[in-house]
Every structure is written in structure tokens, then in C-alpha cells.
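Researcher: Next sequence.
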Amino acid sequence: MRAALESAAVAVAGRLAEADAARVALQEHEARCVWLSGELAEARQQVQRGEAELADAVRRAEVAEADTARVAAHFEDALDELRSQHADTVRAQAVECASLPLDGLLTAFNAFAKARTPGAVVATLRSGLLREFSRVGVFRLRGEQLEGEAPTGGDSLTGIGPVVIPLTVDCLPVRAMTTRRIQSSVGDDLPVLPGLPLGSSACAVALPIAVYGEAPAVIYADISDPPEYAPVTPHLLVKYAELLLRHASLVALRIAVEQRTGTASRDTGS
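Model: Next structure:
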């Protein structure tokens, strides 16, 4: 009987040990489940943050794409406008070149080719201007004033010979002389000189020219009351005068170089 009780006690003790071991294993399992739950929660948070960052990146990409589309559209519009402006400029230049009095330019250039003296350059320039302008006159610099030479032209520049213009007076010839640049006026903005025939003109230009061996000069030219349907507009007349002056300046420079070279050769020979 005692042996049976001892055997039962041993069995109960074994069962209790097994229960304790199972309890410890369960506690460890529960702890691991708690840890896994925390890891899972953190993983879920990371996934949520990743989804939010992805959504923000997608949103920013969409905004950037929209901005790029707007910039591209603006660029295309600006490019189209530049193309249109360039085409208009080319057309305007083509019309301007086609409308210039080419016959007058060709005749003047041929005459310049025959010029051999500074005086011939000034005379040729004046003659070329007379082909398109109704009045042409030359002013020479004498001290602190401009003195007019004899007039040339069908319309009257009466009294231009003795005309004296101080350099303090504001007018096209003085402006051209003091700035050494061509001056022009189209319409009613021409500075008026009281008592002189230079204040009423539909188009006027003053061309400064300096040639070797002669006093600096200004050639003044204008046209009054042009026909309503004139083939050459006042603005093209100014362009015509500019081209003549440029060519005259080159010819005057060539003549000056030839004269100086000839003088130096004669001095060396003597």
C-alpha cells in the first residue's frame, strides 16, 4: 500500500513538474507574442509612413509635371512669338530694301568711284542727296559756328550762303557736327531756327563728314510736302542718306590714304 502511495506521489510530482514547465513555456510564448505584436505594430507604422511618403512623392511629382507642362507651353508660346517677330522683321527689312531708291544709290556709288579729291566726295554726296531730297546745303565749321555755302536744289534755300549758325543753337546741323553722328527728323519735331529756311520740313537729315584737307562739314538735306503717295517714305529717305554717307566716308578715307601715301613717297624720293 505504501509503495502504491509513493508511486502515486512520484507521478503527481512529475505531473506538477510538467505543469510548471508548461506554465513557463506558456509565459515565454506569451512574452514572445507581446514582442511580436510590438514588432508588428512598428512594422505597420513604418508601412504607413512609407505609404504617406510615397503619396507625397507622387503628389510632388504630379505638381512638378504640371509645372513642367506649363513652362513648356510658355516656352512654346514665347518661341512662336519670337518666330513671328523674326518673320515680321525679315519681311520688313525685305520691303525696306526693296523700297530703297536703288537707282539713285547705284548712280551715286558709280560717281563716288570716279571721285579723286575730297571736294569731289562732298560734291558727289550732295548730288546723290539731290536725287531724292528737294533741298540740299553744305555748312562748314569755322571756329565756333557753322557757315552755309551756296545752295543747291530746285526748292529755295534762299540766303543759305551767308547763314551763320553758332554751335550753341539747337538744330540738326549743329547736332550732327557736335555729335559726329547723322541726325534726322521726320514730321514736325525738327528744331526751328527763326529766320532760317530749316524749320519746316516733312523729312530732314544732317550728315557730318570730315575729309582730308578740308574743314569739317555738315550736309543738310530736306524735303517739304512730299506727295501723298510718294514711292519712298521719309524713313527710307533717312536710310538712303545714311547709306550715301557711309559710302562717302569710305571713299574719303581711301582718298586720304592715297594722298598721304603719295606725299610720303614724294618726300622719300626728294
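Model: Confidence is low (pLDDT under 50) at residues 152-159. The first strand starts at residue 135 and ends at 142.
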